[in-house]
Each structure stands twice: as structure tokens, then as C-alpha cells.
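2024-03-11 09:14:02 DEBUG pipeline.ingest accepted 1 chain
2024-03-11 09:14:02 DEBUG pipeline.ingest length=339
2024-03-11 09:14:03 DEBUG pipeline.predict start
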Amino acid sequence: MINLKHFRIKNFLKLDFRWKLKRIGKHLGINLYPTLFELKGFKGLYNRLIMNLLFRSIANEKKKLIFEEIERITLKNSHEKKLLVSPPSSGSNYLRGVFSSYCELYYKIGNGIPKFNSLTNSFIFSFSPIKVDTVFHQLFNQKVKEPFREKFLTDDEFNKKMIIFSRYPFIQSDLFKFDFEKKVILIREPEDWIISRYTQFEKNRFYEEGKINKKLIIDELGRLNKFIVFWKNYIKEKKGNFLVVRFEEMIKDPNSCVLKVLNFFDYDVSNHKIIDRSIEINSKEFVLKDLGVNFTGTRFKDPNQKKKNYEKIKLFTEETMTNLNIKNNYKELINISKE
């Protein structure tokens, strides 16, 4: 029989599903929550039922936190909204890493060095100001507010630093309209870009042994051209406060380029040690040395394989780029930023 003398409904409701069952079972004198999860026979049916109920309770709580985070990042606040937009394979991993390292060091949250998970091909930071612009990525990556964030920075301070990352129109943006006060467009020279993409995906799609993967080249350059034309026209029509950053510029002079982007997004640039360290941590040399093992991710391509692919596909690539007029579109986008 349940002893109601010390029972408090508010405390009970705060418990997770597991402890609710244990608490009720204790009062009833039976084990409602299994002491050992056996999955065969009649006991197995009951245990599977408990597992399903436990999963649903955890999933519902996680869903609540994810929805709260989506609402939090999309609500209007008093700070200028910042957008970083880039095609894949254009250096956004590097730049986002720099921002994450900077915030870890600036707010003393971590040492700025990400942990690379080879099995998931992902760099994991203690904290990042970067948020993605699609519901799918928020749900799939289970993005929630960090439990102890208030110990390091307030919600207002986070909103001031938050950067929305987008690949539009490569990927549809469904959380934001593009009414951002500040926009950084990161772009890579088309010929260099397609060699990188070809090296990564040659054998993944439309591949035939001994032949150039022409379908891959046509499709990828078509998507890149669509990106370039969209943002070229968007800037011409909307004007506003924007910055176009070339991948090649970022590789050649990362300090100057990163400082320019930090300044543009109103980040504190007075502590050059933090900035220099953030750049160093996310450099190819540091990452590969820090790993201490063979890199199995997609961020860095084999330079020898890239050279071979360049020779193999350069004629067809040039023909495709001419048909798309992509070089002229790219030059127009770059030149707009100089006006």
C-alpha cells in the first residue's frame, strides 16, 4: 500500500520515468522496474514494454528541449542577426571551427581544441555560437541549449554572438527568412572547388570504371552556379551589409581574413592571442598533428589525388563551366564585394 505521509506530487512529477516506476514499486512492494532486462519469454514481453515506455519518455523530454532551442534561436532579439552562408567544400568547416575555438577561449569554456570522432566524421567542441538554419539538422543533430551555459555567458550574450549557418540554395532554409542584418558569403573558385568535390565523390555517384564521372561534374557545377547566381542577384537587389570572403584568400592569409570576419560580426578583436590560437588550432597542420592517427574524414583531400583528377577532368570541366557561364558569374559576385 502506498504511504502518502511523505509523498509529494510535485517531487514525484519531476522524476524521470525510471524513478517513477521504482518509487511506485517500492510503495506497492513489487519491482515494476526490472532489476535485470531479460528479453525472452513472458518476462521479456514485459521488459520490452518498459523499454519502449522508457524510450518514449526520454524522447519526449529531448523533443521538448530541441523545440525550445529552435524557438530560442528563431525568436527576435535586440541584436543584429548574423548569417554565414557557404557551399560545401569551401572552407566553412574551418571558419566555423575558428568561431567555436574563439568562443571556448574567450569565455573560458574550454581549450578551443575540438575532439575529432573518426566514426562519425565530426569535430566536437565544448561550445559553439554556430546554429544551422534547418529544422532537420536541429532534430537530427539533437541540438539543445547546453545545461551549464549560464555559468559562462548569458542568453543575451549568446544572442549577441550567435551566427546562423546556411548552405542555401544547396539546402533549403526553413527556419529563417534572409532578413539578416549582416551576411558573410564564403565562396571558392569554381575550378578548384569541382576538383575537391570530384576527389571526394567520384566513386560515390554515377561512377563507371575507367570513365570520367561527367554526371557528377555537371550536377555539382550546376548547383554551385545556382548558389553563385542567387547570392549575386540577392546582393544586387537587397544591398545591405554583406561581406564576400574568398576561400583562396582565407588559405593565403588566414589571420587577416579571420580578423576581417570577426570585426564584421562585431566580435571583440582586442585579444590577438585568442584569435591567433583559434586560427592555429583549426589549421590543417595542427589538426593532423593533434590527431596523431591517419585522418579518415572528408575535410582534407589527398593533394596527389587532386592533381591526378585535375589532369583527368580539366577539359570536360572547362567545357561545362563555359556552358554555365560560371566563371563570369563568380567574378561578378567577387567584384560586387569590391564596389
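2024-03-11 09:14:41 DEBUG pipeline.report The CA atoms of residues 195 and 307 lie 9 Å apart.
2024-03-11 09:14:41 DEBUG pipeline.predict end
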